[in-house]
Amino acid sequence: MNKHLLSINDLSAEEAIEILNTASELAKISDGPMKKLPTLRGRTVVNLFFEDSTRTRISFESAAKRLSADVINFSAKGSSVSKGESLKDTAQTLQAMGADAVVIRHGASGAAQRLADSGWISASVINAGDGTHEHPTQALLDAYTIRSKFPEFNRSFKGLRVAIVGDILHSRVARSNVLLLTKLGATVTLVAPPTLIPVGVVDWNVKVSYDLDSTLKDIDVLMMLRVQSERMANSFFPSEREYSRGYGLDITRLSALNPNAIVMHPGPMNRGLEISAESADSHKSVVLAQVSNGVLVRMAVLYQLLGGAALTGEVSV
């Protein structure tokens, strides 16, 4: 595995499967009497978040602590960044503190790549979401969740049918999921209004549909995306009510899914907009599993990047 995880393109299909397998092994250990491993004792992981986050930041913090790493949470709000400190100065400060890994979330696409390529810091860099570009660990935890529900796709997703629905244009989650799921062999259909389909989507190796209802009966996984109003400077649809009517998951559409199909959402959810409360809380929803699986997958990523020992055999403390 590379020193950094900036994009799904940094991983081969085999390396992605290895991360998922490592997460599975970590799950077995975590279910045992010892919840915390000594693997990264003495290492320092910094969560460097320039954008608000709850799930991702806490997930990375929990993952690092379960591996016995020291964790520093750095938020732009209330820090020197709010006083005008540059990314370079912040990075050099973290370097002086001895950071071994930096988990960065930033509003600018390419910020994680800039940090990794800058030479300002020697730590491994993990992209926790950069603008509308990518969110690779979200795609990995989604793949892990899918695999746990469909064990027949343990080594390959060939034959798996996935629909990603909603605000594709602004979604880094959609981009990373398309890259990973197609890399693993899945068939992916993007469903959205024409205004929320990115230019150049013909190069994404996916199908595109503007009709959610005609797509539902032929899929195994329905991945709903949050409508990212904060990234929208223009009117991409007439009204929230109109959007929900055409592309929201309600109880009627939920009942049209295959009996074994699952519903996913990266969170946070706009209940009543892209997904109804009944759908979010239904037996088909794996939203909470995604959250818990996120810790395991991020443990696996840290484990791989920072050179963890073999998982087999007795673990000493």
Report on the structure:
- Strands 7-6-5-8-9 form a 5-stranded parallel beta sheet, covered by helices on one side.
- α6 links the parallel β5 and β6 (187-191).
- The chain has 317 residues and is α/β, with parallel strands linked by helices.
- α1 packs across α10 and α2 (55-66) packs across α10.
- The chain has 2 domains: 8-134 and 292-305, Aspartate/ornithine carbamoyltransferase (Rossmann fold, 3-Layer(aba) Sandwich), CATH 3.40.50; 136-289, 3-Layer(aba) Sandwich (Rossmann fold), CATH 3.40.50.1370.
- It starts with 12 loop residues before the first helix and ends in a 12-residue tail after the last helix.
- Helix content is 34%, strand content 14%.
Number of domains: 2
Gross morphology: globular
Question: Rg to the nearest angstrom?
Answer: 20 Å
Helix-and-strand structural type: alpha/beta
What strand line-up does the widest sheet have? 7-6-5-8-9
Q: Quaternary status of these chains?
A: single chain
Q: Write the CATH architecture name of the largest domain.
A: 3-Layer(aba) Sandwich
Please bin the fraction of helical residues.
25-40%
Tell me the span between the first and last alpha carbons.
26 Å
Number of strands: 9
Question: Can I get a quick summary?
Answer:
This protein has 317 residues and is an alpha/beta fold. The chain is built from ten helices and nine strands.
